[in-house]
Structure formats: C-alpha cells, structure tokens
Amino acid sequence: MSSGVILLDQHLLIVALNPAAENILGISERRARGESLLQLVDDEPEMRDILMRVMESGDHYANELNLAPTEVHGEERVIDCRVSPIVAEDAHLLVEITDVTRRSQISRENALLIQHGAGRQMIRQLAHEIKNPLGGIRGAAQLLARQLHDPGLGEYTDVVISETDRLAALVDTLLGPGGPANKQPVNVHELLEYVVRLIEVDDQRQVNIHRDYDPGLPEISLDRDQMVQAFLNIVQNAIAALEGQGTLTLRSRAVSNFTIGDTRHRVIASIEIEDDGPGIPTDMQDSIFYPLVTTRPEGTGLGLPAAQELISRHGGLIEFESRPGRTVFLMRIPLLQQVEDANE
Question: Of 93-97, 127-131, 159-163, 304-308, which range is least confident?
C-alpha cells in the first residue's frame, strides 16, 4: 500500500503500522510501537485536534496537514490524514496518512503560473493606457514652455515635464524588461556572488550571508543581465525583511525529474534565497506576485512580478515558503532544453 496505516490505542500510542507509515514517519515499527503518534509529528495541532475529535465523538474525520521537517525528512511535507474509530484488540483508532506533497506542489505551481499570466496581462494593459497620453502631455508642456517669457512660469512647465518623465519611467518598469533573452552559458554561483557584491555596497554588516552551493551544478544557458536582476530583486526583498540583522542563505541544488506546470524536466537548478526574518503575512501570501502588492511603505510591489517574469523567460518558475523565522524563495530553472510532457 502507498498509504500509511497506523493503529492507535486509547492513549494515542502506536499499536501497529505498515511499511508506508514507517517511511512517512521515518521510524521502524519496532521502535514506534508504544510511542505517541503526536510526539512523532512534533505535536502537530491539527493532528491532535482530529484524533481527539474522533476519540470523543466516534465519527470519521479527514484533513490535509503540514508536517514539520525532521531529522529523517529535511523538508516540510503535506499529508492527507483520515482518522476512523475501530475496535480491534488494543486498537481504538485507525489513522490513514498519504504523502501528497508533490501533488500539492504541482497545484501550487499551476496557481502561480495562472497568477503570473493574469498579473502580467493586467499590468501591461494598464501601463499602455497610461503611457499613451503621457507623450501628449509632455509634448504640450514643451510647446507651452516655448511660448512663456516669464521664467517663473517656466518652472511650472518644468514640473509637468519632470513628473511626466517620472511616470513614463514607472510605466516602463511595469511593462518589464524588453527584448528576447540573450542566453549564454553562465555559472549561477558567479551571478549570485555578483549580486552579493552589489548589496554589500550598502551597510549590511549585521546581516550574515551564508552560502550553501552545489559544486556539481553545471553552467546553464541564461541571459546574464536578466538573471542578475531577478536574483537582485529577491535578495533585496530578503535584506529588507531582515531590517538590518539576521541571516541570508544562498543555496543551489540540482533536482531530478521535476515538473514545472505541465512540463517534466529531467534536471533543473533550484536556486534558493532564504532569510530568517518575520515572514510574509498569511493574508498576503496568495497575492505577492501580483504587481503593486507590497508589505513595505516604501516598496513599489514590482520586484517579485518582474523576477517571476524574468525567470519565466527561461522556462522556470519562482515558488516560496514562508513562516515566522523562515522565508525561502525557490527559483526553479531547467538545465536541459529537452522536456517531456508531465502526463506521459
């Protein structure tokens, strides 16, 4: 069976479990027997709630839960948990758990792709509507300035021209970098180190930068300028979240058989930028890749959408995980040009 099956007694201690449950929990049946299931899942509150409800009511309950990283499983996992009452010798509860982390991740990736497409179309339509009349306003102000002989009045037309230019520059930013990607083989670690040198121009002495690079990661065909901008946008957000102190971690990994959208790639590069700041507010996590969404008063809300656009030009995608004390943005970039359909 691919689903884990666990039998619990009236004290929520493990009576028995199958091999799939051993794999999900990271413990053998011999060691698990007589142990508390809640202790093995770090006393996960929703798991406790479901078990107690079934024990008290005798009803069946099911829910999707997040399991924190463990020594055996280094990453957070998503499991589908079903609990039923049972009477079989010492067993009082039957717990079925299925690891649905990858399914949940694919669903989240698709949602990010849809969000990126909708945000890009919306902002480009808005930007074009704004940019068209700006040229007329600037031209009219220049013509008016030529007709004015009073230098004092000329200051007003200068303000109109200056503000029009500022809005035009903002609109260009909304439209994003233009032109096709100029791809050349590059070492992503060199790009990350270049970005570090850029941010170290500012006084970041209280921010500890930790590197965790995969030395076996090969060169990738990328547009250097576009990738530097994408990395820089994410790093600057992380630095701002740390508010002058904390740890910024730059990590790289090669990941096999990874699906981005509907495409399965044999190998991808995962470039991860992690900070130990306060995290992204829960109510904003579903919209941070939309333009003009920001948590900072001085922010423009354009950095993440622009980074997502630049990564998408390389067939990739930016994902993120965030909770207080750990926020990580994961840039998934295909290493190889040959791809396969994920439904094959």
Answer: 127-131
Q: At residue 177, what are phi and psi to the nearest 5 degrees?
A: -60, 135
Judged against a pLDDT cut of 60, whether residue 342 lies above it is answered with: no
- For 43, the token pair is 């006393």
List, as own/partner pairs, every contact residues 203-206 make where C-beta atoms lie below 8 angstroms and the sequence separation is at least 24, other chains included: 204/239, 204/244, 206/244, 206/245, 206/246
Cα(314)–Cα(223) distance, integer angstroms: 8
Q: CB of 256 within 8 A of CB of 265? A: no
- Confidence category of residue 214, pLDDT binned at 50, 70, 90: very high
The string of pLDDT tens digits covering residues 81-106 is: 888 888 877 888 888 888 877 776 66
Q: For position 190, what pLDDT does the model report?
A: 94
Output the pLDDT for position 339.
Answer: 40
- What CATH class is the domain 4-99? alpha beta
3-state secondary structure of 338: coil
260-285 CB burial, b ≥16 within 10 A, e <16:
beeebbeebbbbbbbbbbbbbeeeee
Residues 48 and 175: their CA atoms lie apart, in Å, by: 49
Name the phi and psi angles at 204, rounded to 5: -115, 35
Predicted TM-score (pTM) of this structure: 0.58
How many Å apart are CA 313 and CA 325, to the nearest integer?
31
Which pLDDT score, from 0 to 100, does residue 343 have?
Answer: 44
Residue from 288, 214, 222 nearest 254 by CA: 214
The two tokens of residue 135 are: 């040229």
Pick from 78, 90, 8: which is nearest to 44 by CA? 78
For the domain made up of 183-341, the CATH class stated in words is: alpha beta
What span, in angstroms and rounded, lies between the C-alpha atoms of 130 and 48?
A: 54
